[in-house]
Amino acid sequence: MLSGAGGLQGMQARVLGVMAWMAIWWISECLPLAVTSLLPIALFPLAGIATLREAAAPFANDIIYLYLGGFLLAAALEQWHAHERIALAVIDRVGLSSRRLVLGVMLATAFISMWISNTATAAMMYPIALAIGALFGEGAAARSQRVALLLGVAFAASLGGMATLIGTPPNLILAGATKELIGVTLDFASFLRFGLPIALLTIPLAWALLVFVFHRERLTLGAEGSALLDELRRGLGRLGGGERTVLIVFALTALAWFFREPKLIGSVAIPGLTQVLPGLTDAGIAVIAGMMLFMVPGRAQGGAVRPLLTWTEAREIPWDVLLLFGGGLSLATAMETSGLATTIGGWMVGLRDYPLPVVMLGIAAMTVLVSELASNAATASMGMPIAVSLAAALEQPPLLLMVLVGMSASIGFALPMATPPNAIVFGSGELRVREMMRVGLVLDLVAILVVVGVLLVVF
């Protein structure tokens, strides 16, 4: 038998070697993340870890199809500019003071990011933030408020994505891993139990940090700001045609996800769709919605009738993220079946001597540190099997620590490379690294405390 470091034998040592290989490539990004995610298919059969069929099976996990359907819905919303109308409607209702505008921009960004890619959300919102910020004029106070607006976009795009199952890649990786590793199905409604409270708490705290601690100037736009918002709304035209239709499809899909299973609200029992269609899953709802987009017609402003989504437009969705999910799940499965995850958990058994909140804070802080330097999806993928093993060593529910790692992986506000929204707003050239770091490091700490606190209450 081959002997590895730490007393590992045979297959466990080989799995650890592949894990280290993938971690190095994911963190360094020497190859595209999706290419690194294919390593299990290439290496597991050669190393005798798993057959090709076993290595490839996680790439067909139903969570991947849930995200695929979400991508298609997002593409249709963007194609018909429905997300811009939602954003402007929220901003328009908060007022024209600089503090309220930062809040409005953050609320609009967070809400949209709950349903479409946080990268796409940030890319759509930051030009709106720039346009609003330009009206603040010149001077240090005006520039400070522009920085607050841009940081608000970046932070809210990530925080809003933490609220729903389809909001950000680590959430889907978490759901896939819970099913593969511990046999727990984390559906859309059950995810809201902890995802939504975390988002609802962290977004106002992030706003408060921006406008009351780090960027305290108070400016008012007045008539110019109102005119800008009116101009942006006029550019969208009246709600109707394909835009209205795609919003209807979107709303029905969200309702189907929420009411798939029966709900008990107080003393009122609400029947679920599974009572009529027992085989219906969240992934099935997403795929049905995605297919409907290609079949349902919509009328453009010029009068032309076309499908809500065409395949040319669908080809632009981030297909590489789906491969990233599959690679992470394949690695996690191999770590579990080989016993490597259990062995790693045994190394950490000494942590049982510390209070659970202290251990959770340490796990969250380590996850955030890695996430600041590497892809949040890759961080979540690497952390899931370790979380299961650590839970066994600590004699805690594995779901608790898996959710902790999954939610912490979405926290990364200090560096431009930590998340795509950070990189997008930094690419505007309107802010410096130290301006992002001084707010982001504090928000990292605040978000860690919120995540740990909410999970201790929920679980």
User: What composes the largest sheet?
Assistant: 2 strands, antiparallel
Order of helices and strands: HHHHHHHHHHHHHEEHEEHHHHHHHH
Spatial order of the strands in the main sheet?
1-2
Rg estimate, integer Å: 23 Å
Average pLDDT works out at 85
Domain module count: 1
Please bin the fraction of helical residues: 55-70%
Number of helices: 22
What is the tally of beta strands? Answer: 4
Structure description:
The structure is a single chain. The chain contains 22 helices and 4 strands. It has 459 residues and is an all-alpha fold. It has one domain. The strands form 2 sheets. Strands 1-2 form a two-stranded antiparallel ribbon. Strand 1 and strand 2 form a beta hairpin. Helix 5 (62-79) runs antiparallel to helix 16. The longest helix has 27 residues, at 188-214. The protein starts with 10 loop residues before the first helix and ends with a helix. The model is unreliable at 1-5 (pLDDT under 50).
